[in-house]
Amino acid sequence: MVPLNWYIELSAIIFTIGAVGFLIRRNIMIMLISIELMLNSVNISLVAFSHYLQDIRGQVLVLFIITVAASEAAIGLAIVVAMFKNKAVLHTDEIMEMKG
Amino acid sequence: MLPKLYFGYFSIVMVVISLLIITRKNPVHSILWMLALFFHIAGLYLFLNAEFLAAVQLILYAGAILVLFLFVIMMLNLKEEVLDDRFSGDWPIAVFVGGTILVLILIALIALTQGPLGSYTIQAIQAETHAKVLGRVLYTEYLFPFEIASLILLIAVVGAMVLAKKRRTEED
Amino acid sequence: MEQYVLIPLLPLVAFVINILLGKSIIRGKAHWPAVLALLGSVVLSVMTFAEVAGGKVINQDIYSWIISGSFRASVGFLIDPLTAIMLIVVTSISLLVYIYSIGYMHGDGGYYRFFAYLCLFTFSMLMLVLSNNLLQLYFGWEAVGLCSYFLIGYYFHKKSASDAGKKAFIVNRFGDFGFGLGVIMIFLNVGSVHYADIFSKVGMLQGQTIALFGYNVDLITLIALLLFCGAVGKSAQIPLHVWLPDAMEGPTPVSALIHAATMVTAGVFMVARFNPVFSLSPVAMGVVAITGATTSLFAATIALVQNDIKRIVAYSTVSQLGYMFLACGVGAYGAGVFHLFTHAYFKALLFLGAGSVMHAMSGELDIQKMGGLKKYMPVTYWTFLIASLSIAGIPGLAGFFSKDEILWLAYNGGTVGRIVWAMGTLVAALTAFYSFRIIFLAFHGKFRGTHEQEHHLHESPKSMTIPLMLLAVGAISAGWLGISETLGGGDFIGHFFQPVLGHPHVHAGEGEEFMVMGISIACAVGGILVSWIFYVLKPEIPKNLAVIFKEIYTVLWNKYYVDELYDAIIIRPTMWIAGSILIPVTDGTIIEGIVNGVPKAIAAFGEKLRKLQTGSLQHYALSMAIGLFILYSLVLIAGK
């Protein structure tokens, strides 16, 4: 049997990688992808808990998380599309309209 | 032995793929690597006796969300994109902070104690199929969040249309 | 009780009416509320006097403001012989001054303001006199000082007048500081501020000492001297006399009321009221007597050479106040207050007469420029003459009886008494001399002013001359209340005051009393005679004397350079400290530094803090990650 710890550690590592990716990439699309990465890592840990604690609620929560992640990705991409109308290439460290 | 091996393969591959995702120059490459990741996650779900979720993962994430991403990426000018800097200026700090957070979580994990076991044993789930169990729970206990989730999807649809719409100019 | 409350209340109501409605509605008729109110007060005071003469004494709190433990701050009245006499003095002279002011201040722009302040002053003085506790006395004390400031600086457009007002108030504060300390010392040691408690318990403090700068000082002496500080300031004794001559910048009715009859006598009143305390400290009494006598001599010498008519009378006031303190210092409190009573009438008369002269001379003050006014203003001349005879101490008139009583009791007062008696007798001679100097120079001889002024010379209107005549009656007859037994009188005043002010011992026999009386009469007559010689018969004598004794003359003419001394010792250093230290350093650097510096610091900090808002999404996310890290660590550490 694989100990529960391992799943959680895996989830933590992928979450951190997603977070770091969000912080360091200049391309907007990769930022959104990193967000999806973080959400997926959480899903992994939830399913692992559900399996080991023999509780179905973890998986129900995973369903909801997937739903919300989909909606959020849709809205985020719509915003990106709206921004693309102004520039062809988007770099996050050049978008400083709210400075000061 | 076998389970551990199985898990070992999946975990190592997933970590490597994640690293690849966040470091590729070409966004399309990142998305393709993400596809591979989603497959592996689905495999892990299967390993955890959550076959319905594995199916949902593939259909939704790999089938719908990734396609969305690809559509939008097509609006980018890829030739210029691969020539620009990938990382922003202060990437060492971000990596350092991320690393410390990871270390903290791992330290906290040492004290993990398992809580009381619930009633949904693997056998119980496999007696009725996983989908049926999930369906039943979703439509009885979690009916209210379910309805709210549908509303959230509605917002997403409407919002996406409103945000991405062309602004009408003065002359029609 | 209500009728006694009305005595100070009526002037207060008149003040409120005048100050609120004076500018808009009342204006030129502002004297009506004042005069009507005072008429009421006068009538009530006379009734009260009759009751007290019949033996009644009232000591009652009307309203208790603070009751905290043994400390009781209340408004209360103590009506005994001393109060009754003061009520008569304050209300009658106030009324006559109000009537005089109708004519004197006629047409002045601030007419209503003048009467409003006069009413406020009368109210304050009455509260002071009627009070039965030290706090109310202090309230009245400060309030009369405030009104004095208002009224001296009445012509506030003139810089000299507003300066004089400030000088009066500030010099008074010096004295009031000591007075305040005295009040606190009394409260600390006796536990109450009410007279009844103080006088009954003060005997227990006898012999107690208090450590002061390493020396052991007798407690009662210290308290008495501190209280006397206030009297020195208020009654213009040395060294705080400097404000009174400058107070002549105010209108003449003000000088008559405040700086002759009432406010300056508050110091004497206070010392007389506190005679149980003073009597227990021979040192303090000696200080009082010596101060009084020295001031008396000092002021009389200065008055010899002044030319401003009001200033001469002002120095005369200082000198006569010295007499009153002299009396109190040798234990003759009754005689001191008796002199206060008679002095009020003839001094007010002198001032109002001087005002009448100024009115006729179109504001001229210099007696060298007057002369021969006798035929133009007979009423003024005769009343002024009566007042001068009275102050000189000619038998039969008021001043004689009171002054004589003082000198006789001083003669009986031991070694200190003999010394001050000699000084007082000399002052009597000087007083007669300078008082008649005014008469001879201003009213006799030939007119020495300009043609302009000669055209305007006229007797003053009835509103001014009637008070003069009434005061003259007072100046003659006020002394008849106290005709001493040796002369066949009943000494009504002496017996009247005895329950409150006691009566000093008299060792010397009747023969010595006649001798003392004879000496003082001789001094008075002699002074008048010398003055007549100097200013009527041979006017070249004073001019020659001025040249021969030029140094003495200059010192006297410059008032012993006291003002210059204070300027050098006190004023210059204070202004220097203010200009070099307080303004640039404390105000400029420290306070401005804080007041300006704090906003600057906040703004600078805000500027730095602003740099956090980079506008970059990833920076914000990084901050969140850092925050997350900190939270995690805290939770982990707390968990361990």
List keywords for this structure.
heterotrimer; A: about 100 residues; mainly alpha; Helix Hairpins; 3 helices; elongated; B: about 170 residues; Four Helix Bundle (Hemerythrin (Met), subunit A); 8 helices; globular
Structural shape of chain C: globular
Rg from alpha-carbon coordinates of chain C: 30 Å
Average pLDDT of chain B, rounded to a whole number, is: 88
> Secondary-structure element sequence of chain B?
HHHHHHHH
CATH class of the domain at 1-86 in chain B: Mainly Alpha
Oligomeric state: heterotrimer
Structural class of chain C: mainly alpha
What does the overall shape of chain B look like? globular
In terms of DSSP E residues, the strand content of chain B is under 5%
Contiguous low-pLDDT stretches of chain B (5 residues minimum) are none
Q: How many distinct beta strands of chain B? A: 0
Percentage of residues in DSSP E strands of chain C? under 5%
**Average of the residue pLDDT scores of chain C:** 87
What portion of residues of chain C is helical? over 70%
Short description:
Chain A has 100 residues and is an all-alpha fold. Chain A is 74% helix and 0% strand.
Can you offer a commentary on this structure?
The complex is a heterotrimer of chains A (100), B (172) and C (640). Chain A has 100 residues and is an all-alpha fold. Chain A has one domain: Helix Hairpins. Chain A has three helices and no strands. In chain A, α1 (4-24) runs antiparallel to α2 (28-52). Chain B has a domain at 1-86: NADH-ubiquinone/plastoquinone oxidoreductase chain 6, subunit NuoJ (Four Helix Bundle (Hemerythrin (Met), subunit A)). In chain B, α1 (2-23) runs antiparallel to α2 (27-47) and α2 packs antiparallel against α3 (51-73). The radius of gyration of chain B is 21 Å and the shape is globular. Chain B starts with a helix and ends in an 8-residue tail after the last helix. Helix content of chain C is 74%, strand content 4%. In chain C, β3 and β4 (215-218) form a beta hairpin. In chain C, the strands form two sheets. Chain C has a two-stranded antiparallel ribbon with strand order 1-2. Chain C has a two-stranded antiparallel sheet with strand order 3-4. The chains are: A mainly alpha (100), B mainly alpha (172), C mainly alpha (640). Chains in contact: A-B, A-C, B-C. Chains A and B meet through α1, α2 and α3 of A and α1, α2, α3, α5 and α7 of B.
